[in-house]
Specification:
Layout lengths: L10 H19 L5 H19 L4 H8 L7 H8 L1 E5 L12 E8 L2 E8 L5 H6 L7 H16 L4 E7 L6 H5 L2 H13 L5 E10 H5 L6 E5 L3 E3 L3 H8 L6 H8 L3 H6 L5 E3 L10 H19 L4 H13 L12
Parallel strand pairs: 3-4, 4-5, 5-6, 5-7, 6-8
Antiparallel strand pairs: 1-2, 2-3
Helix pairs in contact: 1-2, 3-11, 4-13, 6-8, 10-11
Length: 324
């Protein structure tokens, strides 16, 4: 049984789980039947997890979104879609492995699917640049989306990135142009686009593959213009204020749903998506099916009009008159 990784605010649960593991070991090594005690402690652990997760701060949710055991794009692609055939390269410079994508089938329908992939261990994280894409990654994503448009296939995207890669080489190859081009092209792509924020939705790195007709967001994902640490470094000149920045940024799913930036929140299993990946895949597959049905039968002109109206509706303000 794989060892679970607990976050700092989950320590009471971690202690209970450690006791449960000790009792299971004792029961295995001896003839003593302590099944009832183990069941009672398991129920207590489950309830404690529910209590903790019922009142999370934005900073705690950010930590869950970054959990190293959280399902990544390829987990959802292989769990939800069939006949996946990965496509590589941007046909300009290189193949950026931080973005994966290709042809697949969703409930029997041909589609294009793509997403950001962080990597599980040190070797893979380095290979995939921790999910931070360079221009060739965004250009690969655009190539795949334009291919989908050519063959009239819906596009499913999965967002999970701290942000676009800020290195000199990325800037030299036109990082901002690649992101801007994707946003421009996605706004007028004549096929349905369904985006899901599955972990971190960071800045332009997220926006480059998330201009969509339907935007779904997992319950404990985050979506923001900048990371809490980056925001704190700008406002307070120290990343130590990241918790306060997370509160001010309004990065959680429920906050963004209230603002109309997200269409649907997909609930996660108790303790987060990483606690039961199979159940999370099942939840998301059902939600994607619902989202797909809402846009599947729209004609291109109806689709574009609906998408443009959606984009133009972003933002809230209150007009007040200032007295003399």
């Amino acid at each position: 049984m794989a060892k679970k990784t607990f976050l700092d605010f989950e320590q009471p649960v971690a202690e209970l789980e450690a006791k449960i593991e000790e009792l299971r070991y004792v029961q295995t090594e001896s003839a003593v039947d302590i099944t009832l005690e183990i069941e009672q402690l398991s129920k207590k652990s489950q309830q404690l997890t529910k209590d903790i997760y019922s009142d999370l701060s934005p900073w705690q949710i950010t930590k869950i979104a970054r959990h190293p055991e959280r399902p990544y794009s390829l987990d959802y692609i292989h769990g939800i879609f069939t006949d996946f055939v990965e496509m590589h390269g941007d046909r300009h410079f290189a193949d950026d492995l931080s973005i994966v994508g290709g042809l697949a089938r969703f409930n029997g329908h041909a589609c294009m699917v793509l997403g950001q992939q962080k990597g599980r261990d040190t070797k893979e994280r380095t290979l995939r640049n921790f999910g931070m894409s360079k221009p060739e990654g965004y250009r690969k994503a655009l190539r795949l989306m334009k291919t989908a448009e050519k063959f009239k296939l819906p596009v499913f995207t999965f967002v999970d990135t701290p942000g676009a890669y800020p290195g000199i080489d990325a800037e030299e190859r036109g990082q901002s142009e690649a992101i801007g081009r994707n946003i421009f092209e996605m706004a007028q792509l004549e096929v349905p686009i369904i985006t899901t924020i599955i972990g971190e939705g960071g800045s332009g790195g997220a926006l480059a593959i998330s201009v969509a007709d339907q935007v779904l967001m997992l319950q404990y994902a985050v979506y923001s213009v900048i990371s809490p640490e980056g925001c704190a470094s700008i406002l307070w000149k120290t990343s130590d204020k990241a918790e306060a920045a997370a509160e001010a940024l309004g990065i959680t799913a429920h906050r963004l749903k209230a603002l109309g930036l997200v269409d649907k929140i997909v609930n996660e299993p108790v303790g987060g998506a990483h606690r039961d990946k199979d159940q999370m895949v099942s939840f998301l597959k059902r939600a994607l099916g619902d989202a797909w049905r809402q846009v599947a039968d729209l004609k291109p002109n109806e689709l574009l009009e609906r998408r443009h109206d959606r984009l133009n509706s972003y933002g809230r303000f209150t007009d007040t008159k200032v007295g003399k």
